[in-house]
What does this fold into?
Amino acid sequence: MQALLEGIKQGRFVVFGRAGMDLFADPIGVKSVDAQQFRADLGGSSANICAGLIKLGCEAALVTSISDDAVGRFAVNRLQDYGVGTDYLTVKGGEYRLSLALYESCIEDFQNVIYRNGAVDFQVTDQEVEQVDYSRFGALITAGTVFAAEPSRSSTFHAFDLARASGLPVIFDIDYRPYSWPSPEVAAEILTRAGEASDLIVGNDEEFGFMAGGIDKGLDKARDLAARGKLVIYKMGHEGAITLTGDAEIRTGIYPVTAVKPNGAGDSFMAGLLASLSQGRDLRDAVLRGSACAAITVSKPGCAGAMPDIAELDQFLTNHLPDQPSRP
It folds into this structure.
């Protein structure tokens, strides 16, 4: 674990996965079906993580493919606006398309429609990941969506090998999205393989349960991974999280807020967790700061734009206390 933490402390991350475009109904509370206007921003789990890291004082570069159209160029512009490194973006022509998410800022009957036909981010190749200068970074991050199809599945595992050869630890957000996968069986097999190849694994109880073959087995799966020397963050929604180090379990609660939408929390949590560890904070504090980032993000419209900077996070923590963990 020491090598993992030392890599994170460098504060420089290379991130694999998708960028997208978010369209969210405006104003707050309006359903998409009734909306007369939408706001647009950067989307996609890995791009969101990058934006969150940058806002919290880290460096992040995204490795992905971008469609050769106005939507792809919009995403590149927004990545650059947030300060995300774009040296390793590859533009793909033809009928490949950037991911598009259409949602609203409401909790009741929340609708999130994601368009993934001909997803361009699945087109990352071995040759493209070999162009990355891994020596520039302290750690590799990926979200599980990259493994849902070829060639990005194989190329990301190849990137794992290249990162390890350069001394980088691997950080894995399970991020299971059923609609991206050919079957649950393939997803369980490949996500388990990715988890076993990683040093830090973050997921919720449903995702660990899915990998283990039943939600009642998820915590045992997380404990098994931790027993093999991995750092595991087992998230349980409103019940908080368990951080497993192999020889310890740290239970933390959440920060209660009035949410305006449910999405973006996981990406913001990851950014807050890693940025806090990069600043030398201990595990418990880093997880709580990640939880605070998630709370801030769900309390505002959008995802990347809703993620806090350091000043906003510190002010939130001054005025809020976390709930106590609900599980003993």
Q: What stands out?
A: The chain has one domain: 2-312. Residues 258 and 299 are 6 Å apart (CA to CA).
